[in-house]
Design brief:
This protein folds into two domains: 1-31; 34-157, no CATH class. 31% of the residues lie in helices and 23% in strands. It has helices spanning 2-30, 94-103, 109-113, 125-129, and strands at 41-44, 53-54, 65-69, 77-84, 116-121, 134-141, 146-147, 156-157. The strands form two sheets. Strands 1-3-2-4-6-5 form a six-stranded antiparallel β-sheet. The protein has a two-stranded antiparallel ribbon with strand order 7-8. A hairpin with an 8-residue loop joins strand 7 and strand 8. The longest helix has 29 residues, at 2-30. The model is unreliable at 22-29 (pLDDT under 50).
């Protein structure tokens, strides 16, 4: 009995440590980033906030992890708007979700004249089921890069 109790105690302790580790790593991996990061880092798309600068854009399809860089460094895009769906909203379908986020993407004429376009990232049905209600609008420089920020008019397109 004593051996069985000891083994069960060790197993329970290991399970508790594993559970706490998973919770801690999940919390760190979903915490929003500061608007302008101090150094380059990989981040989940759900961590991005208005102001974050993205080194390169994924080619197409779903976006999971991106490289976020300080806006003073050359980058391909910047999060300029965040669209929040209501927390109790019903899944509208992918096309409707994409359209709602895209409508929040508004560039000024000088940005358009410099060749800046917008890209909308909206929740997928799978991420919606996990509670994702955030869409992102990114200002993008096709085939070039930008230094600085579109938000404070320090962006320089090259």
């Amino acid at each position: 009995m004593a051996i069985a109790g000891g083994v069960l105690g060790v197993v329970a302790t290991l399970a508790l440590v594993a559970g706490v580790t998973v919770v801690a790593l999940t919390a760190v991996g979903t915490r929003p980033l500061p608007a302008d990061v101090g150094s380059a880092r990989d981040a989940h798309a759900g961590q991005l906030v208005t102001g974050n600068c993205v080194a390169t854009l994924p080619s197409d399809g779903s976006v999971d992890t991106v490289r976020v860089v300080p806006c003073a460094d050359p980058h391909a895009a910047q999060v300029v708007t965040v669209y929040e769906f209501s927390g109790d909203a019903v899944w509208p379908g992918q096309r409707a979700a994409d359209a709602r986020v895209a409508r929040s993407c508004v560039l000024d004429q000088s940005e358009v004249d410099e060749g800046v376009t917008s890209v909308a990232w909206s929740p997928t049905e799978q991420s919606w089921a996990r509670g994702d209600r955030i869409g992102l609008c990114l200002a993008v420089v096709e085939g070039g890069s930008v230094t600085g920020s579109f938000l404070d008019d320090t962006a320089t397109v090259s």
